[in-house]
Task: inverse folding
């Protein structure tokens, strides 16, 4: 009699577990299924790109379709092209199509769009004062002379965008800066160098190139010697 009752209880428990099994499995599957739409992915990718210091002022467009990211536009170096692709691989993205092109002058137009027109007007007024200072032997003679000569060579006033373009062009042709990732920021003719270089000689050479560019007032060298990130 005892054994009959025991087996009956075990049978009922087994039946309850089998019956509840599919429902439990369905519930687990539902909780683990998280759908991320393309709009959300695009926002994530754009945020990731903006967080990269060396991609500042680069012309990068992001489109997402079916969880596949397509990057178009221009960047200044091949290293930044690769950096953008890595940054686009956020959670939820299945693949990245990198159609970015490398152009040493990329970003110059963006600087103009974000207020360089105002800076240009200020530069023209300031350069006139510097030219007078050169003639009178003022302390600003060296800076004024460099700016005047550069302006004559280009047919107009030297702008921050002009300085940025020329520094990048000269760095592209410098063997010591191969495999380096240098970001050039110019504000009111004052240059700040950021990023990484592979050698201390490359760091010094980058600063020298910036200092010898027409129109540059000062150079802040924040470059880090190490492997490209």
Result:
């Amino acid at each position: 009699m005892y054994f009959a009752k025991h087996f009956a209880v075990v049978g009922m428990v087994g039946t309850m577990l089998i019956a509840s099994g599919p429902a439990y499995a369905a519930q687990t599957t539902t909780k683990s299924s998280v759908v991320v739409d393309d709009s959300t992915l695009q926002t994530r990718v754009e945020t990731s790109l903006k967080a990269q210091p060396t991609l500042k002022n680069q012309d990068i467009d992001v489109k997402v379709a079916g969880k596949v990211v397509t990057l178009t536009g221009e960047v200044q170096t091949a290293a930044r092209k690769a950096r953008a692709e890595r940054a686009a691989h956020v959670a939820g993205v299945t693949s990245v199509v990198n159609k970015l092109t490398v152009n040493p002058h990329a970003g110059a137009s963006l600087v103009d769009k974000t207020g360089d027109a105002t800076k240009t007007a200020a530069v023209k007024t300031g350069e006139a004062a510097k030219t007078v200072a050169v003639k009178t032997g003022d302390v600003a003679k060296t800076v004024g002379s460099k700016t005047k000569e550069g302006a004559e060579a280009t047919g107009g006033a030297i702008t921050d965008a002009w300085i940025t373009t020329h520094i990048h062009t000269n760095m592209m042709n410098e063997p010591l800066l191969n495999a380096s990732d240098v970001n050039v920021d110019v504000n009111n003719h004052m240059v700040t160098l950021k990023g990484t270089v592979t050698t201390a000689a490359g760091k010094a050479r980058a600063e020298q190139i910036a200092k010898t560019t027409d129109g540059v007032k000062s150079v802040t060298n924040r470059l880090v010697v190490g492997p490209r990130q």
